[in-house]
Inverse folding.
């Protein structure tokens, strides 16, 4: 298993939920972190938690993935701060649940632009920094909603389509980066219970039985496993928390 100590990681959507859990866990693996998200105050709260737990405070950068200008500013800010990145975790996206009412153009554009346009432009902008690493990885947090033949269930069609496109980005990057050291890793979780490191639920999650809902811890452990594999191994992982049959879908 490869060690993560000393690696520099960028995480989008790091201000809450799964992004915050990934940030804390990567910090405890002794990564140097850059936390990105729409809410700078939320990012600072996560950074403060990490500082108390590890003694090292991450850098926080505000970015709205649905806004290409904001994405460009964030890329420029990271480029000024770092000349090399080891890990990019594309976790940021906007959730839009199923509704009987029509969606506004702003809602649809927000979902699609954050998951697809913003994710790709952010990744593209950071590729030169990743290319300077000895062990560069891009991890895209997709969703079982984005898998072929997944049930729509409680997700909106725009979210369903955006997650399908996000999966295609991860797959396309694998092909585009063929022959380069950069790995494109995909993790597709189902609906998740939002638990955080240090909470009793985080410890208890390891004892859940088949058919129980997935948790943030399951995704964090999948990411840590994937990025610590030998460099000749690239993983695409589907986390099935169901009890058999069709994969569950949701806002994972």
């Amino acid at each position: 298993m490869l060690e993560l100590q000393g690696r520099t990681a960028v995480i989008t959507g790091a201000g809450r939920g799964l992004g915050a859990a990934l940030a804390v866990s990567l910090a405890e693996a002794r990564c140097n972190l850059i936390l990105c998200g729409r809410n700078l105050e939320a990012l600072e709260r996560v950074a403060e938690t990490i500082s108390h737990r590890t003694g090292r405070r991450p850098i926080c950068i505000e970015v709205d993935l649905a806004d290409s200008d904001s994405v460009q500013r964030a890329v420029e800010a990271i480029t000024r701060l770092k000349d090399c990145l080891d890990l990019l975790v594309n976790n940021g996206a906007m959730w839009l649940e199923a509704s009987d009412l029509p969606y506004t153009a702003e809602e649809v554009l927000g979902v699609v632009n954050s998951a697809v346009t913003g994710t790709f432009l952010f990744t593209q902008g950071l590729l030169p920094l990743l290319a300077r690493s000895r062990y560069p990885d891009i991890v895209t947090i997709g969703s079982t909603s984005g898998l072929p033949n997944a049930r729509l269930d409680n997700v909106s069609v725009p979210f369903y389509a955006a997650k399908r496109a996000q999966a295609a980005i991860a797959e396309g990057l694998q092909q585009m980066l063929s022959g380069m050291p950069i790995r494109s890793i995909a993790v597709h979780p189902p609906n998740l219970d939002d638990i955080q490191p240090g909470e009793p639920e985080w410890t208890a999650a390891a004892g859940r039985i088949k058919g129980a809902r997935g948790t943030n811890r399951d995704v964090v452990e999948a990411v840590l496993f994937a990025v610590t594999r030998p460099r000749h191994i690239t993983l695409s992982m589907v986390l099935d928390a169901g009890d058999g049959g069709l994969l569950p879908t949701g806002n994972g």
User: Anything to note?
Assistant: The two ends are 27 Å apart (CA to CA). Helices lie at 17-28, 40-54, 68-81, 105-130, 157-176, 200-204, 216-227. Residues 105-130 form the longest helix (26 residues). The chain has a mean pLDDT of 92.
